[in-house]
Write a structure and sequence with these properties.
The protein is α+β, with helices and mostly antiparallel strands and 365 residues long. It has helices at 17-30, 41-47, 57-83, 106-115, 120-124, 158-174, 190-204, 281-287, 358-361; strands at 5-11, 34-38, 89-94, 129-133, 181-184, 209-210, 216-221, 229-238, 244-253, 256-266, 271-279, 298-307, 310-319, 324-330, 344-349. It is globular and about 65 Å long.
Length: 365
């Protein structure tokens, strides 16, 4: 059976998902792909008469259960269509199952997943990639509108913007731990946001991508971080062929653990091919036997957050170095300014400085 990639397109209100779906279909159809798209199930139910705002608890519960059941059934149906398609194909889900958990409490979520015979971990593993488009309410407020979705209850006023930002963060948190979660920033030029979506999907499909450098800085904290996602990362480099970098990463948060095996191979001076796969704890332990003897294991704490429409990760290194704090932007265009938060002091711009690549930080001296 051929491998069919299943990709989630998610994000907060007014993030540009509808337009992105059109661009995805056009771009990859021109490359010879058949793109199947699973419609946004919560909107189907809202337009059919069900409402998140109902005071009837039983009606609310049955609605959320129906949404999860329908989402699972629709995804499975489209995957079967993709499997018999003669063209190269993939499936894009307009929101995924874990989005539902952002709108309900943990008790209800555990109850409805149990009734569907599944769990958070199983649902996370259904997807090959998750692309989170940041809501226009965070950093691109001038473009925020409710006109494109009559079922949306966050209005285009200050309170509505606050609710939209809050939902955006809840949705992002719901997908924490997915090995290929990518946050797509807002930009002054919306085409830049769409191009990043195309690039990330191309990466998932195994298409070579241009070599790009995220902006990276040595920083110090000068205040409290906002609400963020914190995880512990253990990163081990494995023995590999020349021009190839193989990394084994264990990420843990809130009692959960995800292991990812990543290969990065330079296919030309200007292109690189990256592949990622999630591995079991048993395989993780086995692969550690292939650790590069010339490199130490990296241990660090990562805190991730969105600030004014831009996504940041701060790594606090513990080994093989300490007292090192590196901030990395994600998806900030070359022509754009970085919206540095006021609680961050930039010490040094190390973008492109190979000395600070994790691969070289791990090198034993």
């Amino acid at each position: 059976m051929k491998e069919i990639k299943r990709i989630v397109l998610t994000g907060g209100p007014c993030a540009g998902k509808t337009t992105a779906l059109v661009r995805i279909i056009e771009h990859f159809s021109n490359l010879g792909f058949k793109v199947f798209t699973v419609p946004e199930v919560p909107t189907m139910y809202s337009q059919g008469g069900w409402s998140y705002l109902t005071p009837n608890h039983d009606l609310y519960y049955e609605g959320e259960l129906a949404i999860l059941e329908t989402q699972l059934a629709l995804e499975d149906s489209f995957m079967r269509l993709a499997e018999v398609c003669t063209k190269p194909t993939f499936v894009v889900c307009d929101r995924g199952t874990l989005d539902i958990s952002a709108y309900i409490d943990n008790a209800m979520w555990n109850d409805i997943t149990g009734k569907c015979g599944t769990s958070t971990n199983e649902l996370r593993d259904r997807y090959d990639a998750v692309l989170h488009l940041v809501s226009a309410a965070d950093g691109a407020e001038q473009y925020y509108t409710v006109a494109t979705n009559s079922a949306r209850y966050e209005q285009a006023n200050e309170e509505g913007l606050r609710l939209a930002r809050d939902l955006d963060k809840k949705v992002n948190k719901a997908w924490t731990g997915h090995p290929h979660l990518r946050v797509i920033n807002n930009h002054d030029d919306f085409d830049t946001k769409l191009n990043r979506v195309i690039m990330e999907i191309s990466n998932v499909l195994g298409l070579p991508q241009p070599v790009t450098e995220e902006r990276v800085y040595i920083v110090e904290l000068q205040g409290e971080l906002p609400e963020c996602i914190e995880s512990e990362i253990t990163q081990t480099y494995l023995v590999a062929d020349p021009d190839c970098e193989v990394r084994l990463r264990r990420r843990s948060w809130g009692g959960e653990v995800v292991n990812v095996h990543k290969t990065k191979k330079r296919v030309s001076a200007s292109e690189v091919l990256e592949t990622e796969r999630q591995v079991s704890n048993a395989l993780y332990e086995s692969l550690l036997q292939q650790a590069d003897p010339y490199r130490s294991t990296i241990r660090k704490t990562r805190r991730s957050f969105i600030w004014k429409g831009q996504y940041f990760e701060i790594d606090f290194f513990h080994a093989p170095v300490d007292n090192l704090m590196i901030l990395q932007t994600k998806g900030v265009d070359e022509q754009e300014d970085v919206n540095f938060p006021p609680f961050i002091k930039v010490i040094k711009d190390i973008t492109g400085n190979k000395e600070y690549y994790n691969y070289n930080i791990a090198l034993k001296r």
